[in-house]
C-alpha cells in the first residue's frame, strides 16, 4: 500500500513538473518563431550572389585556427530547416532556444577542404557574412556569437527576436551550419591525419577529434531526422526526454561540453528505441529509468554511439551500419567525464529506490552544481599564460581541452586514492565572445577544478608512501615527480620507501589536499600562487580565537572528564550509587563553536604570579549528567529537585574532602572545578530513567518530572551525535559553521543548538543525491540550502541517526506531524512547530522545535539562508578572492530590523569572540550609554595584587550579561518587542515590533511610551551595557 502511494505521488509530481517545464507551442509562439525564421531568410536573400569572401572578414580567427586556405564566393544555403528540441516538441524551460539548421552550399568548398582547418575557416566566414546582413533586419533585436558545445572552432549565431513573449522569456534562435555531403566520409576516418601540423618527428599523427568535428556537421541533419522520426507522435517518449533534460541540467558536472547535452540525450533515447530497449508500453518514468540504466552500464566514451546511416547507393534506402564512415555521436564524452556521469546515474537510481516519495525532490528539484557537489574547488587564472597555447590553439583538439587533460592527469597522479573524482572544466566561451577577435581572449574565464574526496581519512593523511628503495626506476620517477618533497623514510614495519610528508596540526589537516594541489600546479605547470584560488579555508576565521581553533584543546577536556567520571563513580560516602557519568555539553562531541579553554583559576593549585591581564573573569561550565540509584524518591516534582540538590551537595563535599577539589554551590546548581574546567552536575535517577523510556502517552510517564524528561532526551541526543561525529569527522566543523552563521545573523533564540546538530546530521545520514560531504564549506553550503529549500510547511524532517526507525515509526511520526498541522489550522493561537524535526527519541518534535522557530521566525530564517546560499555559491564559483567578501556571510544587515541596540563590546564576557564591531549610520539615534565599571571581562591590574582566594571569589560561572539583559527586556516588553541576538559574542540586538491592535497602540502613544520612550526604557534596563539605541522603523498599526 505504501509503495502504491509512493508511486502515485511520484507520478502526480512528474506530471505537474512536465506541465511547468514543457514549452507549449501556442499560436503566438508559433507566429513569433515563423516570423523570425522568415526574417532570417529575407536577410539571407539580400546577400549578393558570388560575393567574394576573404579572410578579412575574420582574420584573427583564421590565423588562430591555423587554416591555410579560406577564400570562396558566397552562395545561398541549400536549405534552412528547424531542428532540435523544438522540431519534436520537447523544449524544456527555462532554456528556450530553437535550432535552425543551415546547410552550407557545396560550391563554396573544395573537395579537400577537410584538411588543415579550411572547412572550419570557411564555415566561420560564411556566418560572418550572414551576421552582417541579419543585423540590419528590423525583426531582429540583436545577433551574438556562441559556440557549438563550447568548441571555439565551431561558432554559431544566436539571433534574438525583436518581440518578447511571457510564455517564452529569453527565446533565441541558433543558426547552426551543416555540411551534408560536402566531403567523402572515408577521408575522415578516425585513424587518418587531416591536420598536417600534427606530427611526431616526420610521422603524422591521427586526428580523430578533428575528424569527428567535421563529421558531426555532415550528419547533423540526418541524425536530427532520425530523432524526429522516433519522437513523432510518441507522447511518453517526449515526456521522458524532458525529464532527462531537467535531470541533467541540475547536474553541472555532467551537463557540460565533454559529457552530455540535450541533443545527445535525445540521440541516446532514440538509439534505445532502435535497439528495442524502449517500447510503446513504457511510461515516461520507465523510459527515464531505462535510459539511466543504459548509461550506467554502457561505456559510451569507449565504444562510441553510432546511428545507422542511409546508403544512398541503394535504391531501397536501406539503413546500414558502417562505423568507418559515420560519426561517433558521443565523441565529445571524455574518459574523465563518463565515470562521473555513471556515478550521477547510480546516485539517481539509488534515489528512486531509497528516498521518500520516489525521490522526486532529489532527482528533479535539487540543484547539484559544482559548488555543492565537490569537496574542494579551485580556480586557475590562466589569462595570458603562454603555456596553454604554446603548440597552437587548435591541432587535433583545442588547446583548452588539452590543458584540461594535462591538469587532470597531473592531479590524478599526485592525489592518488585521496580523490574519488577530479573534474577539470574550462568554459571558454562567454556572452561577449566575438569570433572576429580570434581565440586569444578565450583564456579570460578561469579554469575550474573540483575534487570529490574518497574519504576524510585519506584526504587528511599526512604521509604518502611511494615505491620501495630497491625499485630504483620507480623511486627515480617518484623523486622526479615530487622534487624536494620526496624523502626516503624508514617506517615502523621496517620498510624503507620513498615518501612525501605533509606535516600539519590536527586542526589544519583539511588544508593538506590544498597544499598538495598548489605544490603540483606550481612545480609542473609553473603556476604562481596568486593564479591558484582555492576554496578550502576561507570560513575558518569565524571559528578561530587568537588565530587558533579552540577545538584543538578538546583532547585535554576529554581526559579531564574521564578522570572526573572515575572519581564520581568511586564515591562511597554518599547514600547514592552512581552507575554512570555522561557528558551533555556540545563541547564533548566537538560541535561547540567555542569549547571552553582551561581557566587558570579553575585549578587545584594556582600560581597567582603567572596570571595575565587577559585572564577572563567568567568561567564557562560544562554540563555532566549523573545516572544514580537510591531508595524511594519523592513523587512531587519540587521535592525531587530538592532531593537532587541535597545529593549534589553531598557529592561536592565528597569531592572536596577526598580530592581537594573546588566546588561552588548555588540554589540551583553545583559546579565542580578540575584541571581548569568547570563541570556542572545534573542527576537523572534510575526510576525516572526507566519511566521516561516508556512510550509517549503511557500513564506512568506522567509521573516523570519535566527536568528528568529533558535530561533523558539530552543524554540520548548527546550519545547519538557523539557517535555520528566519530563516523564523520567533518560533521563537527560543519555544525560549528552553521551555529556561528545562525548566531551572527541574530538567530540564537530561534534554533536550539541540538536542532542545528540534527539538521546537519541529516546531510550526512541522507546525503542523496550527493555523496557525503567531506569538507566544511561544502557541508555548510548544503546546510544553508536545506534550510532555504526544504518544504517545512508540508514535510517532516526525520533524522534517524542509528537507523532505529521502522516503517511503523515513520508512520507514527507522520501522524504526529499531521495532528500538529491540523491543530494549528483549527486554532492559530496554539503554538505551531513550524520546523518538525523527528528522531528516535523524539517522534513528536517536542524537544527542540516545539516553540521555536515559529512561522515568522522560520520565514525570516529561510530568507536569510537562501540569500547566504546564493552568495556563497557565487563566491565558490566566481573569481572572488577578497577576504572581505567571505566575511559578508557573517555580517548581518542591521537595517532590516525595526530598531537596533548596540552593546559595549568590551563588556561582553568573551570579547575575543566578537567577529565585527557593529555600527549603524541610519535611523533615529534614541539613546547612548557609557560602559559600566562594575564589570570587566578580564582581570584588572589591581586584581593581580589580591590573594588566590580573593580572585576565586570574583570568578563568575556562566555569567552572561547579554542573556541577563535579554531576559529582562523580554520580561518587561514581551508583548511589544521581539528580540534577535547573537549568543556567541555579538554586540548587536535587533528588535522587531509585535503587532498590536490599533486601539491599544493609540493608548500606548497617549501614555508617551511608544516608540521612542519605550526604546529609551529598554536602554535603561541595560545601563552600562548598552552603547546605543536606534529607531529605524515605526511600528505599523493593525486595524
From TrEMBL:
Its main location: nucleus. GO terms for cellular component: CURI complex; small-subunit processome; UTP-C complex. It is found in: Nucleus, Nucleolus. Keywords: Nucleus, RNA-binding. The keyword Transmembrane helix does not apply. Residues 98-230, 238-367, 372-526, 550-725, 728-891, 895-1001 form the Nrap protein domain. One of its GO terms (molecular function) is RNA binding. Pfam families: Nrap, Nrap_D2, Nrap_D3, Nrap_D4, Nrap_D5, Nrap_D6. InterPro entries: NOL6/Upt22, Nrap_D1, Nrap_D2, Nrap_D3, Nrap_D4, Nrap_D5, Nrap_D6. GO terms for biological process: rRNA processing; tRNA export from nucleus. It comes from the Eukaryota. Belongs to the NRAP family. This is ADP-ribosylation factor. It comes from Hibiscus syriacus.
Amino acid at each position: 500500500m505504501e509503495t502504491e502511494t509512493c508511486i502515485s505521488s511520484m507520478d502526480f509530481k512528474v506530471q505537474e513538473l512536465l506541465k511547468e517545464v514543457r514549452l507549449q507551442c501556442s499560436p503566438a509562439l508559433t507566429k513569433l518563431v515563423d516570423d523570425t525564421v522568415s526574417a532570417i531568410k529575407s536577410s539571407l536573400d539580400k546577400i549578393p550572389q558570388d560575393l567574394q569572401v576573404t579572410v578579412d572578414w575574420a582574420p584573427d580567427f583564421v590565423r588562430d585556427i591555423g587554416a591555410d586556405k579560406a577564400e570562396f564566393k558566397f552562395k545561398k544555403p541549400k536549405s534552412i530547416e528547424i531542428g532540435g528540441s523544438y522540431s519534436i516538441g520537447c523544449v524544456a524551460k527555462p532554456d528556450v532556444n530553437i535550432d535552425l539548421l543551415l546547410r552550407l552550399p557545396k560550391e563554396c568548398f573544395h573537395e579537400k577542404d577537410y584538411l588543415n582547418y579550411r572547412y572550419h575557416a570557411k564555415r566561420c566566414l560564411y556566418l560572418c557574412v550572414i551576421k552582417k546582413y541579419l543585423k540590419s533586419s528590423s525583426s531582429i533585436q540583436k545577433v551574438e556569437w556562441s559556440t557549438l558545445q563550447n568548441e571555439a572552432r565551431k561558432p554559431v549565431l544566436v539571433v534574438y527576436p525583436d518581440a518578447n513573449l511571457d510564455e517564452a522569456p529569453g527565446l533565441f534562435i541558433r543558426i547552426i551550419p551543416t555540411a551534408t555531403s560536402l566531403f567523402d566520409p572515408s577521408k575522415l576516418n578516425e585513424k587518418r591525419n587531416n591536420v598536417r601540423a600534427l606530427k611526431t618527428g616526420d610521422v603524422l599523427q591521427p586526428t580523430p577529434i578533428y575528424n569527428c568535428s567535421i563529421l558531426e556537421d555532415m550528419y547533423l541533419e540526418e541524425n536530427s531526422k532520425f530523432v524526429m522520426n522516433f519522437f513523432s507522435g510518441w507522447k511518453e517518449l517526449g515526456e521522458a526526454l524532458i525529464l532527462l533534460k531537467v535531470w541533467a541540467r541540475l547536474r553541472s558536472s555532467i551537463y557540460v561540453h565533454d559529457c552530455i547535452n540535450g541533443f545527445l540525450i535525445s540521440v541516446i533515447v532514440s538509439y534505445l528505441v532502435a535497439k528495442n530497449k524502449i517500447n510503446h508500453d513504457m511510461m515516461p518514468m520507465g523510459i527515464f529509468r531505462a535510459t539511466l540504466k543504459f548509461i550506467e552500464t554502457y561505456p559510451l566514451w569507449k565504444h562510441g554511439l553510432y546511428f545507422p546511416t542511409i546508403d544512398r547507393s541503394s535504391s531501397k534506402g536501406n539503413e546500414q551500419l558502417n562505423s568507418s564512415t559515420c560519426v561517433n555521436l558521443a565523441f565529445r564524452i571524455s574518459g574523465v567525464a563518463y565515470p562521473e556521469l555513471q556515478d550521477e546515474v547510480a546516485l539517481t537510481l539509488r534515489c528512486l529506490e531509497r528516498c521518500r516519495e520516489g525521490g522526486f525532490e532529489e532527482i528533479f528539484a535539487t540543484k547539484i552544481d559544482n559548488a555543492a557537489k565537490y569537496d574542494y574547488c579551485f580556480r586557475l587564472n590562466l589569462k595570458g599564460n603562454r603555456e596553454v597555447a604554446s603548440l597552437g590553439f587548435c591541432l587535433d583538439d583545442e588547446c583548452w581541452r588539452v590543458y584540461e587533460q594535462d591538469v587532470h592527469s597531473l592531479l590524478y597522479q599526485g592525489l592518488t586514492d585521496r580523490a574519488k573524482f577530479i573534474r577539470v572544466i574550462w568554459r571558454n566561451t562567454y556572452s561577449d565572445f566575438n569570433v572576429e577577435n580570434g581565440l586569444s581572449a578565450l583564456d579570460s574565464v578561469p579554469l575550474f577544478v573540483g575534487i570529490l574526496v574518497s574519504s576524510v581519512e585519506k584526504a587528511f593523511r599526512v604521509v604518502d608512501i611511494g615505491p620501495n628503495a630497491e625499485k630504483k626506476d620507480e623511486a627515480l620517477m617518484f623523486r622526479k615527480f615530487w622534487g624536494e618533497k620526496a624523502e626516503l623514510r624508514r617506517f615502523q614495519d621496517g620498510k624503507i620507501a620513498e615518501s612525501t610528508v605533509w606535516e600539519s596540526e590536527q586542526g589544519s589537516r583539511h588544508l593538506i589536499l590544498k597544499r598538495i594541489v598548489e605544490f603540483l600546479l606550481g612545480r609542473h605547470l609553473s603556476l604562481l600562487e596568486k593564479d591558484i584560488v582555492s576554496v578550502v579555508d576561507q570560513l575558518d576565521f569565524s571559528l578561530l580565537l587568537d588565530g587558533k581553533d579552540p577545538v584543538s584543546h578538546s583532547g585535554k577536556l576529554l581526559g579531564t572528564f574521564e578522570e572526573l567520571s572515575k572519581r564520581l563513580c568511586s564515591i562511597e560516602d554518599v547514600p547514592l550509587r552512581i552507575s554512570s557519568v555522561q557528558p551533555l555539553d556540545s563541547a564533548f562531541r566537538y560541535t561547540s563553536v567555542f569549547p571552553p579553554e582551561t581557566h587558570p583559576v579553575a585549578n587545584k593549585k594556582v600560581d597567582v604570579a603567572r596570571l595575565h591581564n587577559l585572564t577572563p573573569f567568567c568561567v564557562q561550565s560544562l554540563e555532566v549528567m549523573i545516572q544514580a540509584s537510591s531508595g524511594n524518591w519523592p513523587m512531587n516534582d519540587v521535592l525531587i529537585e530538592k532531593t537532587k540538590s541535597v545529593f549534589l551537595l553531598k557529592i561536592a563535599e565528597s569531592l572536596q574532602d577526598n580530592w581537594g577539589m573546588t566546588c561552588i554551590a548555588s540554589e540551583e546548581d553545583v559546579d565542580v572545578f578540575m584541571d581548569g574546567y568547570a563541570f556542572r552536575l545534573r542527576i537523572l535517577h534510575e526510576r525516572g530513567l526507566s519511566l521516561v523510556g516508556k512510550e509517549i502517552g503511557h500513564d506512568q510517564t506522567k509521573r516523570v518530572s519535566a527536568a528528568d524528561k529533558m535530561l533523558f532526551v539530552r543524554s540520548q541526543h548527546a550519545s547519538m551525535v557523539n557517535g555520528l561525529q566519530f563516523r564523520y569527522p567533518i560533521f563537527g566543523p560543519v555544525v560549528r559553521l552553521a551555529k556561528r552563521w545562525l548566531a551572527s545573523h541574530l538567530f540564537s533564540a530561534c534554533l536550539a543548538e541540538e536542532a542545528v546538530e540534527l539538521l546537519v546530521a541529516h546531510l550526512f545520514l541522507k546525503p542523496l543525491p550527493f555523496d557525503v560531504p567531506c569538507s566544511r564549506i561544502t557541508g555548510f553550503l548544503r546546510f544553508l540550502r536545506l534550510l532555504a529549500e526544504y518544504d517545512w510547511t508540508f514535510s517532516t524532517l526525520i533524522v534517524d541517526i542509528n537507523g532505529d526507525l521502522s516503517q511503523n515509526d515513520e508512520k507514527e511520526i507522520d501522524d504526529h506531524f499531521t495532528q500538529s498541522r491540523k491543530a494549528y489550522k483549527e486554532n492559530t493561537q496554539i503554538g505551531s512547530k513550524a520546523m518538525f524535526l523527528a528522531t528516535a527519541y523524539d517522534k513528536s518534535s517536542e524537544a527542540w522545535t516545539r516553540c521555536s522557530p515559529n512561522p515568522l521566525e522560520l520565514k525570516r530564517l529561510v530568507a536569510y539562508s537562501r540569500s547566504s546560499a546564493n552568495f556563497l555559491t557565487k563566491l565558490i564559483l566566481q573569481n572572488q578572492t577578497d577576504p572581505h567578501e567571505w566575511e559578508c556571510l557573517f555580517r548581518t544587515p542591521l537595517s532590516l530590523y525595526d530598531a537596533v541596540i548596540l552593546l559595549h563590546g568590551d563588556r561582553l564576557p568573551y570579547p575575543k569572540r566578537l567577529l565585527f564591531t557593529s555600527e549603524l549610520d541610519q535611523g533615529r539615534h534614541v539613546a547612548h550609554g557609557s560602559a559600566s565599571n562594575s564589570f570587566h571581562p578580564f582581570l584588572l591590574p589591581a586584581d593581580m595584587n589580591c590573594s588566590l582566594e580573593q580572585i576565586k571569589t570574583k570568578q563568575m560561572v556562566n555569567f552572561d550579561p547579554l542573556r541577563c539583559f535579554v531576559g529582562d527586556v523580554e520580561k518587561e516588553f514581551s508583548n511589544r518587542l521581539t528580540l534577535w541576538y547573537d549568543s556567541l559574542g555579538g554586540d548587536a540586538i535587533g528588535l522587531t515590533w509585535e503587532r498590536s491592535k490599533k486601539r491599544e497602540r493609540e493608548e500606548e502613544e497617549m501614555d508617551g511610551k511608544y516608540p521612542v520612550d519605550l526604546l529609551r526604557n529598554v536602554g535603561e534596563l541595560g545601563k552600562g551595557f548598552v552603547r546605543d539605541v536606534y529607531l529605524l522603523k515605526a511600528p505599523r498599526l493593525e486595524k
